[in-house]
Amino acid sequence: xxxxxxxxxxxxxxxxxxxxxxxxxxxxxxxxxxxxxxxxxxxxxxxxxxxxxxxxxxxxxxxxxxxxxxxxxxxxxxxxxxxxxxxxxxxxxxxxxxxxxxxxxxxxxxxxxxxxxxxxxxxxxxxxxxxxxxxxxxxxxxxxxxxxxxxxxxxxxxxxxxxxxxxxxxxxxxxxxxxxxxxxxxxxxxxxxxxxxxxxxxxxxxxxxxxxxxxxxxxxxxxxxxxxxxxxxxxxxxxxxxxxxxxxxxxxxxxxxxxxxxxxxxxxxxxxxxxxxxxxxxxxxxxxxxxxxxxxxxxxxxxxxxxxxxxxxxxxxxxxxxxxxxxxxxxxxxxxxxxxxxxxxxxxxxxxxxxxxxxxxxxxxxxxxxxxxxxxxxxxxxxxxxxxxxxxxxxxxxxxxxxxxxxxxxxxxxxxxxxxxxxxxxxxxxxxxxxxxxxxxxxxxxxxxxxxxxxxxxxxxxxxxxxxxxxxxxxxxxxxxxxx
Length: 484
Known about the structure:
alpha/beta, 14 helices, 29% helix
């Protein structure tokens, strides 16, 4: 007998089967520890670990610059970046990035070396980021609007060989930064860069070959001990994420608004996803596209990535923002009622929920909300794993939990970051051995997020296993606040 208003028949049957299986196991082996007993049947175990993680896809063994260079060949004259009154075609963007990259190499840039980039959001910033990647170095994005103490810490902790900036931004940076500064608006630098070859770089033009395991960028996130931690993301992880974007988010081939802070990896989708899809990156503030006047006014945007907290900013924008394109929501829990309200006012917009910590390279699961979906109360599902990514919902003993049971989410696969810069102990604590992998040495990342599987193999967000909170998508560790 069971309460039909609380349970479905299949749920109760599964509970009875699991209880029976548990009793058979413990009576057959009374000395066995309870925590070592799995309540899952073999087919359930296979479904969650194998079938729902069947994400293997072939990804080209190239760097991100090579993906963009291939797009340059296809759409050389098409607009690649629009920022205020500046418009760069794919050919112009590529040539400018190549010249700057060669200059960076001459200044000491190369694989396994980091370059800090501190510039306002602009076309020059896009050029600089791409140039650093072309040089073989990894970049440390520094938002000039960040507090001075945080910028000082990021520069001291990452120890870049160079800081790429301009005169206006340099005045906001710590004076004792250590690394030399390259001012892009300095006349001598401008002349030197302009005199460089604008052709694509090869390994012979760099200090050494660029390998898939080399750092592409280092993003700093909040730290529970009071110190921000730098997440080192490799070229392989970045390429695996970006190469999927045009297929998963086809509206990136139109115009994409890049409004996020450069120090927030949420902008990677809008920036690199658009450039490998042949789209145009519109560099402007989020509220400017819905304004009647000012920079970005009236710009048509086919793809927009925001946090749910940003949705009120877009209210009243009418059809000017993603009129028939794609709206990506992520960075924090997505209330179902907010999505239903948005879709009522913008019925042609396709909504996708996007989930992933920085340690899993921007995103590791997503969920395209069906056009006819009627979402109930609570949060929108976070979906299924992306290409070459595996996800596990585990208990405290690292055993898979049944469908519908809450457990902690662990992520494995190509998109995992290398770890935390200069924090071997913390890396070992959060990136642990993957007990379900078929390849020796595989790791999985402990996210701290509590989720559960639905019967259809879709992940649903439940909450946090610790005290971490989200503010407009930014991870905030209370320990960092307490330390101050």
